[in-house]
């Protein structure tokens, strides 16, 4: 029997369509169909100036807006051959890590909703709200921040002291989630030994981010990024490669992110940091970029995102290319799902943390 | 009851109705009470569940329609009444319409079986425990029929799951009921209730000897109601809405009412079997203690029994809702494994324990 799952389905979180070949409950074949959320992010860039495109890049993946604008802004900075002030790059790291926590919290809630547990969804949203409220305070927006600009950030960071209580509250609640879930027999039976992704397959399919690190790999692009040079953090990692390992890795990453946030706040409070995080020499309104190519990597909550820009000397990019990790995660589905049952589809699919807007751009 | 009957005849005589009318109307009155009570209870139960789920997740739940959202379900029901009944093309029209009715009618009968107080048990046959078991299974048949007739793949998967689930959870329930029958030496729900009465309150409730049975029945009942964590037939994140995917309007509402009234009936059933039904948890009835001997007390006792009955039922319902708020859904194959490998042996063990208790302790008493 052919079962058409989606594109309008309560738990695809967007518009993914899966064409499943099922025998009773068992899945024989799976074909993901994407493209229902295509907005032409790449083509759009060719008709816009560098500055005009800046607010739209947050929408590539609306749950991790800071990461996308970081990739774009850094790539443009490389083309312009400027470096942001030290304070600006620390602020960027701080906000990105907060964003990572918010994104992982949302994942946790929706994943459990996919598994049929209603309550954790509201709990994680309650904590995520704290972070979003802070983002709203500094940038005026809750999801599409438009806060990073070429050569710095848009405004001074305000109310730094309010971050620590937020992070502390979240870490405290994280223990509660663990109490609710990590030993929950039903949760374990639904996630352990399910959708096992071996390291070889993961590397073959270009999987990055927590999905890869749950399969016994150390690859974290944060350690290659110059912004993260001054920060100490462990790379969260698990060996099993099943859904439960991916859950453990994400929870661990929230804890590691909080460490980075504490360090960043310490840095920001020091005197020697340059006062203004905004590069005032740059006039972004008429930005003519020298011909050339540049790309920037960033480790988003979902893996590696790369923004590659080719400039041709005008005020508009000649071509922008986005490499997003969810796109690669969707390709994995046929590999992981075959042999499982219909009730496992969402358990596996949810554990990969696929963001449909990121897949289609 | 006789007192009420006389009062009713007097009332009829006052308005010059023939006396024979009372003979026809009076036996029908309790059924009307049940029909109305069922609808009110369902409306109330849906609201209570949404409110509780709201409080569990630090929300307020519905609080816009009426005082604190009291009329929310009424508004929802009104909306469903106004909606168009859509029959999908390719569906079996007759069965598609019949299915919600098949699911709903047995629930009304089930409500009639339950002993709400010492007088108010309408179908008191010597074997109404068995009768209950069969009727409680009937809605599953309606649900299956609905899913089958909808001509939709999600519905068919849902209805197949319903049947698989119901069959495997019916057995542990049956075995646990057997242990109750052994303990009380009766298959009549009123007799079972009375067998649990004692002057010391809850000491003779069957939950004490048959505690394993209570756990088994509690789990199985949730499974048979298709509620979380056993809500596979209507698993939202997998099958959209399962068997009811294609249903809309009043037909959908009938399924909905079936689900919630069955939930109440099954909770009440657990109360009758394990928690002494309408018996007071203090041994004696409060109205007898305070107003003993008077006519008011004799009438009040019935209301008090109903009150205890409903109170206990709502505690069980609260537990069922709490379970829903806590656990994720089981996998379909684990669900069946759980029933056959764990619940069934447990219920047989429970039967064995109960027989031993009856043979040694019950025999001496």
Radius of gyration of chain B: 22 Å
**CA-based shape of chain B:** globular
Give the low-confidence spans of chain B: none
Order of helices and strands of chain A: EEEHHHHHEEHHHHHEEEHHH
| Share in β-strands of chain A | 5-15%
Distance between the termini of chain B: 33 Å
Number of domains of chain B: 2
Describe the global form of chain A. globular
Please compute the radius of gyration of chain A using only Cα atoms: 20 Å
The number of distinct β-strands of chain B equals: 0
Count of runs of 4 or more consecutive helical residues of chain A: 13
The overall average pLDDT of chain A, rounded, is 84
Q: State the helical fraction of chain B.
A: over 70%
Features of this protein?
heterodimer; A: 361 residues; alpha+beta; Cytochrome-c3 Hydrogenase, chain B; 3-stranded antiparallel β-sheet; B: 365 residues; mainly alpha; 2 domains; 13 helices; 0% strand
Characterization of the model:
The complex is a heterodimer of chains A (361) and B (365). With 361 residues, chain A is an alpha+beta fold. Chain A contains 13 helices and 8 strands. In chain A, strands 1-2-3 form a 3-stranded antiparallel beta sheet. In chain A, strands 6-7-8 form a 3-stranded antiparallel beta sheet. In chain A, strand 4 and strand 5 form a beta hairpin. In chain A, helix 3 runs antiparallel to helix 4, helix 4 packs antiparallel against helix 10 and helix 11 runs antiparallel to helix 12. The longest helix of chain A has 30 residues. Chain A starts with a strand and ends with a helix. Chain B has 2 domains: 82 residues, no CATH class; 282 residues, no CATH class. The mean pLDDT of chain B is 82. Chain B has 13 helices and no strands. Chain B is globular and about 65 Å long. By secondary structure, chain B is mainly alpha-helical. Chains A and B meet through helix 4, helix 5, helix 7 and helix 12 of A and helix 6, helix 9, helix 12 and helix 13 of B.
């Amino acid at each position: 029997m052919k079962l058409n799952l989606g594109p309008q389905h309560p738990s695809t979180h967007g518009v993914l369509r899966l064409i499943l070949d099922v025998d009773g409950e068992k899945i024989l074949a799976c074909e993901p169909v994407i493209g229902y959320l295509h907005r032409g992010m790449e083509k759009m860039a060719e008709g816009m100036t560098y500055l005009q495109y800046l607010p739209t890049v947050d929408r590539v993946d609306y749950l991790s807006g800071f990461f996308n604008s970081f990739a774009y802004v850094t790539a443009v900075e490389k083309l312009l051959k400027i470096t942001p002030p030290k304070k600006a790059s620390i602020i960027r790291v701080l906000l990105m890590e907060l964003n990572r926590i918010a994104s992982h919290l949302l994942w946790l809630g929706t994943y459990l909703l996919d598994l049929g547990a209603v309550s954790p969804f509201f709990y994680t949203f309650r904590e995520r709200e704290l972070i979003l409220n802070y983002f709203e305070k500094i940038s005026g927006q809750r999801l599409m921040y438009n806060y990073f600009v070429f050569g710095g950030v848009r405004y001074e960071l305000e109310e730094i002291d309010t971050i620590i209580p937020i992070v502390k509250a979240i870490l405290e609640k994280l223990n509660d989630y663990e109490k609710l879930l990590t030993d929950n027999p039903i949760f374990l039976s639904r996630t352990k030994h399910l959708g096992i992704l071996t390291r070889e397959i993961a590397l073959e399919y270009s999987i990055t981010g927590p999905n890869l690190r749950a399969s016994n790999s150390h690859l974290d692009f944060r350690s290659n990024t110059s912004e993260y040079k001054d920060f100490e953090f462990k790379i969260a990692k698990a060996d099993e490669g099943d859904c439960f390992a991916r859950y453990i890795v994400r929870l661990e990453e929230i804890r590691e992110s909080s460490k980075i946030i504490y360090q960043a706040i310490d840095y920001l409070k020091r005197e020697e940091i340059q006062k203004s995080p905004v590069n005032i020499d740059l006039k972004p309104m008429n930005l003519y970029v020298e011909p050339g190519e540049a790309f920037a990597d960033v480790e988003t909550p979902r893996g590696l995102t790369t923004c590659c820009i080719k400039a041709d000397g005008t005020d508009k990019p000649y071509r922008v290319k986005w490499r997003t990790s969810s796109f690669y995660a969707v390709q994995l589905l046929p590999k992981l799902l075959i042999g499982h049952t219909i009730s496992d589809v969402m358990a596996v699919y949810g554990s990969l943390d696929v963001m449909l807007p990121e897949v289609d751009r | 009851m006789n007192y009420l009957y006389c009062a009713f005849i007097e009332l009829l005589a006052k308005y010059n109705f023939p006396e024979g009318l009372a003979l026809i109307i009076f036996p029908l009155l309790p059924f009307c009470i049940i029909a109305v009570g069922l609808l009110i209870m369902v409306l109330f139960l849906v609201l209570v569940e949404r409110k509780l789920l709201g409080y569990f997740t630090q929300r307020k739940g519905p609080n816009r329609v009426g005082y604190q959202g009291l009329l929310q379900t009424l508004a929802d029901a009104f909306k469903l009444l106004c909606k168009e009944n859509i029959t999908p093309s390719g569906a079996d029209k007759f069965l598609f319409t019949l299915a919600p009715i098949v699911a709903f009618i047995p629930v009304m009968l089930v409500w009639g079986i339950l002993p709400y107080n010492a007088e108010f048990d309408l179908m008191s046959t010597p074997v109404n425990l068995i009768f209950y078991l069969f009727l409680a299974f009937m809605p599953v048949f309606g649900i299956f029929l609905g899913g089958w007739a909808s001509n939709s793949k999600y519905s068919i998967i849902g209805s197949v799951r319903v049947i698989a689930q119901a069959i495997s959870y019916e057995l542990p329930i049956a075995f646990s009921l057997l242990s109750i029958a052994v303990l009380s030496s009766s298959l009549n729900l009123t007799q079972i209730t009375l067998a649990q009465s004692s002057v010391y309150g809850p000491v003779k409730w069957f939950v004490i000897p048959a505690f394993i049975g209570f756990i088994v029945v509690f789990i199985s009942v949730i499974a048979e109601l298709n509620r979380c964590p056993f809500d596979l037939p209507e698993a939202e994140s997998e099958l959209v809405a399962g068997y009811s995917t294609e249903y809309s309007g009043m037909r959908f509402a009938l399924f909905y009412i079936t689900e919630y009234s069955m939930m109440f009936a099954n909770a009440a059933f657990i109360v009758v079997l394990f928690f002494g039904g309408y018996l007071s948890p203090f041994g004696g009835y409060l109205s007898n203690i305070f107003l003993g001997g008077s006519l008011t007390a004799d009438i009040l006792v019935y209301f008090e029994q109903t009150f205890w009955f409903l109170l206990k039922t709502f505690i069980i319902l609260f537990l069922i809702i709490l379970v829903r708020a806590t656990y994720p859904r089981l996998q379909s194959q684990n669900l069946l494994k759980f029933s056959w490998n764990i619940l069934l042996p447990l219920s047989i063990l429970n039967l064995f324990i109960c027989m031993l208790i009856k043979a040694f302790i019950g025999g001496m008493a």
